[in-house]
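Morning. Coffee machine broken again, so started the prediction first thing and wrote up yesterday's gels while waiting. Chain of 220 residues, entered below exactly as on the submission form.
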Amino acid sequence: MKRVVSLLVMVFLCAAVVRSQGAIPFWKEVQVFKQKDSVQFPAANQVLFIGSSSFTLWKDVQEYFPKHKILNRAFGGSTLVDLVRFRYDVIYPYQPKQIVIYCGENDFASSDTVTVEMVIQRFKTLYHLIRAKYASVPLLYVSMKPSPSRVHLLTKYKEANQQIETFLKTDKKAAFADVYHLMLKADGTVMDDIFKEDKLHMNAKGYAIWKKVLEKLLMK
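Came back before lunch.
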């Protein structure tokens, strides 16, 4: 009888773990990456892309940078908090030549209560955790873009971009890619032909702008 009870408890606990994992944001998306890795683990010395949907939806990113080997482990909708949470799954397992980050937009969009100071602290937390694992791997942060659907957040994006750029200047192996200003018209408004219908995600014209910036900063 005791053995039966013990087995039932174990089954209950396993079910609870599965339910709790399923409740974690982006848990399923990360499991897809882990499944791919279990079939064929990525080669070392690739450029690791991490972050949110602007990277996730860049399906043909390898075609934009044929001279580089790109490993894309971005998952759409993610925040800096999510990257910290899943660092053991989407950052730490690999031996990248360079780590490229696009994240921060969704932190602000998640709640009006999220301040610039909070996002900067989140970024610094992620930065230090990456440096704890990869002390000398070059880092590249791509600035938050001026999405038309999030015009109300652009002031926060600009301030956060500036603070992150300043912070990264203290690290000789880190760089900041300013795509924000190249996505604006001469009058300072956001270009309206480089985004998809949702006014949040970019079309090929938008990614072409990013290519011009990133190809100068990606490791040879």
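The longest strand covers residues 47-51. Going to sketch it on the whiteboard this afternoon.
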